[in-house]
Amino acid sequence: MCAAPKQGQTLPAGVDTEKETVLTGQVVDGSGNPVAGAFVRLLDGTGEFTAEVVASATGDFRFFAAPGTWTLRALSSQGNGDVTVSPEGPGVHNQGVTVAK
């Protein structure tokens, strides 16, 4: 059985943000309420699927990626949403995704 790592805003011990690019954020609805259980996909600069996680009970998600252009796509029963991020280097890059029908 395959499972996504536990999501949340607190990074696991041992993550070196001087060397790693971390994309993190929260899925929210149009009123700013967290959307639990949304599927959050990471798409590369060409739109190709790279990874997927399930947002936590508080709507949080996290990906480890490389610098470049990425699309974060959230899919949920409350709607869908996309946002593009372009981290230029290592560190924590926080970007929320708002979903709407």
> What's the mean pLDDT score?
89
Order of helices and strands: EEEEEEEE
- From the N-terminal CA to the C-terminal CA, the straight-line distance is 32 Å
Q: Compute the gyration radius: what is it? A: 13 Å
Q: What's the helical proportion of residues?
A: under 10%
Number of helices: 0
Region (Disordered): 78-101
Protein name: DUF1416 domain-containing protein
Pfam family, one: DUF1416
Keywords: Isopeptide bond, Ubl conjugation
Keywords summarizing the entry:
mainly beta; globular; 4-stranded mixed beta sheet; Immunoglobulin-like
What would you say this structure looks like, in words?
Residues 78-101 are annotated as: Disordered. This is DUF1416 domain-containing protein. Keywords: Isopeptide bond, Ubl conjugation. The protein is mainly β. It has a domain at 21-90: Immunoglobulin-like (Sandwich). Helix content is 0%, strand content 45%. The protein has no helices and eight strands. Strands 1, 4, 7 and 8 form a four-stranded mixed sheet that branches. Strands 3-2-5-6 form a four-stranded antiparallel sheet, with no helix packed on it. The relative contact order is 0.30. The mean pLDDT is 89.
